[in-house]
Amino acid sequence: MLRHLNLWNRGRLTNAAILLFGKAAQRFLVASEIKCAHFHGTRVAKPIPSYQVYKGTVSTLVDQAVDFVLSKIALSVGTRSESVQAPVAYEMPREVVVEAIVNAVVHRDYTDSSSVQVMLFADRLEVMNSGGLPPALTVEKLRVAHQSVPRNPLLAESMYLMRYIEKMGTGTLDMIRRCAKAGLPEPEFEVGAGFVARIWRSGETTREGSGTTPITTAIADSTTGKTTGKTTGKRILALLRRDPEISLPAVADRVGLTVDGVRYHIRKLKAAGAVRRVGSSRAGRWEVLK
């Protein structure tokens, strides 16, 4: 089996073989563990309410990290009108959480000494890894159809056979589609020292850094009762039009979002050509264009 999967090279196990089947993979690849943390607020701050370091094979790491996240987020249970089992739905689609964590494990740089970090905040989930993106991909390309370019092809092949990934470059597109179907903002992807996948939650905190637990304060459309990003954008535009010098924390207080949530909507408004910033972040003002 190892030879068939190209995990046996010149009489020795490859690193991918250790990650996939090793009984104590972290003895040889120390940083292959996953660190999971849960914060009540929207920033990294001590004390950390819940913190776990998971070790084991890559499939075990993924399963444990996913369970950590799902155990901390809201879960709704439906009725048994169509089945003997009551349907359940997490506030963030399970498939999106799995995709973000699997991508971090499969595409990370295993020569780097940092571990994959899974951080759950009151308003978002952030999954960070040291992999970055291969030269053939950009953040913009992740939002359209693109080829699969695995950083660790031997690892990706076995994870594909275990049905954790599809190797078609559809993972990020599936995340975007599922979040939209769940009424959540689009996931964000960032490349810096590493790669970050950011998934927004359906609940918001009452105030930035207040330490309160998440509560549902979604803004509903007055005619349909559905939560819509367009309605939130309209409220933010109205505030910026009325007070061009208003600060982001003040906007957050008015619309019931966190500052990060407001930044997300303003980025969307800027991309749509609806608003722009004139001057510096401190002394400037907002100009509503639509």
Radius of gyration: 21 Å
Main structural class: alpha+beta
SSE succession: EEHEEHEEHEEHHEEHHHEE
Count of DSSP-assigned helices: 8
Helix content: 25-40%
Strand element count: 12
Order of strands in the sheet with most strands: 4-3-7-8-10-9
List the helices and strands and how they pair.
Blueprint: E1 8-9, E2 12-13, H1 15-21, E3 34-38, E4 50-54, H2 58-70, E5 75-77, E6 88-90, H3 94-107, E7 116-120, E8 124-129, H4 153-161, H5 171-181, E9 188-191, E10 195-200, H6 229-242, H7 248-255, H8 259-271, E11 275-278, E12 285-288
Parallel strand pairs: 3-7
Antiparallel strand pairs: 1-2, 3-4, 5-6, 7-8, 8-10, 9-10, 11-12
Helix pairs in contact: 2-3, 3-5, 6-8, 7-8
Could you explain the architecture of this structure?
There is one protein chain. Strand 9 and strand 10 form a beta hairpin. The radius of gyration is 21 Å and the shape is globular. It has a six-stranded mixed β-sheet with strand order 4-3-7-8-10-9, covered by helices on one side. A two-stranded antiparallel sheet has the order 1-2. With 290 residues, it is an alpha+beta fold. It has eight helices and twelve strands. About 9% of the residues have low confidence. It is 31% helix and 17% strand.
Quick summary of this structure?
This protein is an alpha+beta fold and 290 residues long. The chain has helices spanning 15-21, 58-70, 94-107, 153-161, 171-181, 229-242, 248-255, 259-271; strands at 8-9, 12-13, 34-38, 50-54, 75-77, 88-90, 116-120, 124-129, 188-191, 195-200, 275-278, 285-288.
